[in-house]
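Predict structure. Input: Quercetin dioxygenase-like cupin family protein, 118 residues.
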Amino acid sequence: MKKFSLTAMARTQMQLAATASSGRSANTVFGGHEHTLRQTVIGLAAGTELKEHINPGEATIMVLSGRIRLTSGQEHWEGRTGDLLVLPAGYSQITALEESGLLLNVAKIDRLEAAGND
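Output follows.
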C-alpha cells in the first residue's frame, strides 16, 4: 500500500513549472507506459499549453488547483479546482488559464484489440 498527497505533489510540480522554460512539469504517481493505468501529476504555469494529443484510451483530468481550458476541435470546457473533466475521444489540448496543478488519469486501450471487438 502506498499513500500520496496529491496536493503536495501538485504544489511541487507547479513550483518546478514556474522555473521551467516549457512552463510545465510532471511526475508519474502510479503506473507507466508498461501499465494499462497511468496517473500523472502535472504542474502548469499560467498561459502554458499542453499541445494537442490523442487520447490513448479513457482519460480524465482532475483539477487539483487553478483553472484550465480543455479544447477538442471547436468545443472547449473550463475546469477549476475540484473539477473532473473527461477527455473526449480523439485529440484535445489543455491550456492553463492560471497556475494549475492537475492529475491526469489514463487507462490505455490496446487499439488492435479494441478493433477486433467491433
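The chain has a mean pLDDT of 90.
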